[in-house]
Amino acid sequence: MDDSSEKDKEYFLYFLNNHAKKFPNIFILGDLFDWWPGDDTYQFKKIISGLKKLSKKSKLFFICGNRDYLIGKKFAKETKITLLSDHELIQLGNESAIILHGDTLCTDDKNYQRFRQFSRAWISKKGYLLFPKFLKDYIFKLVRKKSNNDKSFKVESIMDVNEDSVKKLFKKYNYPSIMIHGHTHRPKVHRYKFNGINSERWVLSDWYKSGSFLSWKNGKLKNIKI
Amino acid sequence: MSIVTLKTNHGSIQIELNKEAAPITVKNFENYVNKDFFNGTIFHRVIDGFMIQGGGFTKDMSQKQTDAPIKNEANNGLKNEKYSIAMARTSIPDSATSQFFINVNDNNFLDYPGQDGAGYCVFGKVIKGQDVVDKIAKVPTGTSGMHQDVPNEMVIIEETSV
Questions:
Q1: In degrees rounded to 5, what are phi and psi of residue A70?
Q2: What does the pLDDT look like over A52-92, one tens digit per residue?
Q3: Has residue A142 got a pLDDT over 70?
């Protein structure tokens, strides 16, 4: 969501107040924000309050995406969110599930993976966050201006995951029955069989455009309309 | 259904246009064909496994002046399947003018509502010359100025006819 869009923010708050509060644990798998400029931002105050309010009823967890990887400890403290690492193994009832944003699986996009490694390095993040506020605001305005004024007729594709990378990740966590990620905007359930074990990879849709979220209830995963 | 032939330096591609599903888009495309707009333009962006895009640049990589943009008719049920033809646009939904692309894969993420809520409007399909499309998709590409994925040796639309 973009801070300039009241509609985006109201929609997310509607989700928090009408759906999320019914669940004991909420996992946000990244790219909640179109761009997170750093925790000292003046933006998204209503969202931070909304998340803090929800944290009194539900436990909140966050995995950063490629657009909001600068989310840090101050945000976590304000919202009472627990920041998770890129890949986490969680329990859904009797099932184990790996959850992640999904960009780490797009290993065919070598340029992006190189950028990711550089930008997530402690020194790069720290360096950017040490920029004075006026410079960070300026960079943010440039990013937003570029996305609003994109006059290029390029037909773009967000690369899909690399299946070998998917299999390697399943193997690393000893073949849990579920993997959940977003990022690629290709919502689907993919089925695998590893050494006789059935596993599923659930790809989330864009929460805003599709107007849905994934829930775990009564031992099953289900997409629910917001 | 009307049929347009693109004669390229790699062979001919015959495209069946779906006037019923995309009337504004087909009329727009036919207008450009009828005034020979595409003659001498190139496929300036070619990505194997994804799509080949053309209809906007001349051989010296300058962008041609187009007519006014048209309404996005992406919500017409047609899919960005392999060998379908669709309109390119900017991030503004109703911004398509002359540039089009031919899908060389099933690119469902481009179907309405797509990744940005607007999708890309499919308005026809290649009925003859799929092998030519495949050949174009595999040409070696590089960077030309600000543009990436530009064929090293030009893929030219020499002539078009309805």
A1: -90, 5
A2: 999 999 999 999 998 898 899 999 999 999 999 999 999 99
A3: no
Sole residue written with tokens 């002359």: B98
**Cα gap A80→A76, rounded to integer Å:** 5
Its sign, for the CA torsion B124, B130, B134, B135, is negative
CA dist A204 and A184 (Å) reads 8
Over residues A97-101, the mean pLDDT reads: 97
Q: Which of A27-31, A113-117, A207-211, B26-30 has the lowest mean pLDDT?
A: A207-211
- Measured between beta carbons, which residues in chain B are less than 8 angstroms from residue A153? 53, 56, 88-90, 99
Please tell me if residue B112 touches chain A, with a CB cutoff of 8 Å.
no
Q: Which CATH class is domain A6-225?
A: alpha beta
> What SS3 state is found at B100?
strand
pLDDT digits 0-9 by tens, B49-78 = 899 999 999 999 999 999 999 999 999 999
Q: Which of A153, A185, A186 sits opposite B56 (nearest CB)?
A: A153
Q: Is B117 on the interface with A (CB under 8 A)?
A: yes
Looking up tokens 């050494």 gives A195
* B75 part of contact set with chain A, CB < 8 Å: no
What is the distance in angstroms between the CA of the first residue and the CA of the last residue of chain B?
11
Domain range for residue B89? 2-161
CATH code of the domain containing B106 = 2.40.100.10
Q: Where are the beta strands (DSSP E) in A5-146?
A: 25-28, 59-62, 81-83, 87-92, 95-100
pTM exceeds 0.80 for this model = no
